[in-house]
């Protein structure tokens, strides 16, 4: 059983790299962002709470994130292990993780803030099916339309320069100390996230002695 935490600033490719690892190694990919987006899409009570926070330009609180992650991990559907992104978000949560789970490693995707801004502000989301696009690396065949369902592509409500600046400041103030804590436990492998997704995936697998990444054999095409 393999258990990993993947960390990196927004736009560093955590979701893409997690999905590639999960598909090839039978891991459960636990994405805090995906969980919240599911609740928003399905109009749950939690989704309404998240929607209000986003509309106000605020960040989802650490306590709420911790509650969601604890509930998700208690499902115990990760027979071969998991890779979790979007958590932990502070030192206390990191210490809980170290005490509760025998981690195999922390993948730290390192990306400069200037590149984060370039990537994040190019993101688009299908308003109908939720498919993710990026106008830099994953453009739709028809501008403004989803390749899967034909829905309109929109900018996420929280993908604005001001909101991104707040998220970057929050990330560095909270997550940098978490990464330092993990480093002292010798769990962290820092990967340069500026390269293309295949290069980054190969670097992750090399550093963690995982089976090689072969895109032609991978079960995830995107």
Q: Secondary-structure blueprint of this entry?
A:
Blueprint: E1 2-8, H1 14-25, E2 28-31, H2 32-41, H3 45-55, H4 62-73, E3 81-85, H5 91-100, E4 105-110, H6 113-120, E5 123-126, E6 132-134, E7 153-154, H7 161-184, E8 188-192, H8 197-207
Parallel strand pairs: 1-3, 1-4, 2-3, 4-8
Antiparallel strand pairs: 5-6, 5-7
Helix pairs in contact: 2-3
The gist of it:
By secondary structure, the protein is α/β, with parallel strands linked by helices. The chain has eight helices and eight strands; from the N terminus they run E-H-E-H-H-H-E-H-E-H-E-E-E-H-E-H.
Report on this model:
There is one protein chain. A hairpin with a 5-residue loop joins β5 and β6. The C terminus is likely disordered. This protein has a 5-stranded parallel β-sheet, sandwiched between helices. A 3-stranded antiparallel β-sheet has the order 6-5-7, with no helix packed on it. It has 8 helices and 8 strands; from the N terminus they run βαβαααβαβαβββαβα. The chain has 222 residues and is α/β, with parallel strands linked by helices. Pfam families: ADK, ADK_lid. Its main location: cytoplasm.
Question: What features would you highlight for this structure?
Answer:
alpha/beta; 44% helix; 8 helices; 222 residues; five-stranded parallel beta sheet; 16% strand
Structural class: alpha/beta
Residues in helix, %: 40-55%
Total count of strands:
8
Overall outline: globular
Number of helices: 8
Please give the alpha-carbon distance between the first and last residues.
Answer: 25 Å
**Helix and strand element order:** EHEHHHEHEHEEEHEH
**Gyration radius, in Å:** 17 Å
Largest sheet: 5 strands, parallel
Q: Return residue spans where pLDDT drops below 50 for at least 5 consecutive residues.
A: 217-222
Q: What portion of the residues fall into strands of 2 or more residues?
A: 15-25%
Sheet with most strands: strand arrangement = 2-3-1-4-8
Mean pLDDT: 87
Binding site for AMP: 37, 58-60, 86-89, 93, 156, 167
Domain Adenylate kinase active site lid: 123-158
Subunit structure: Monomer.
Region (NMP): 31-60
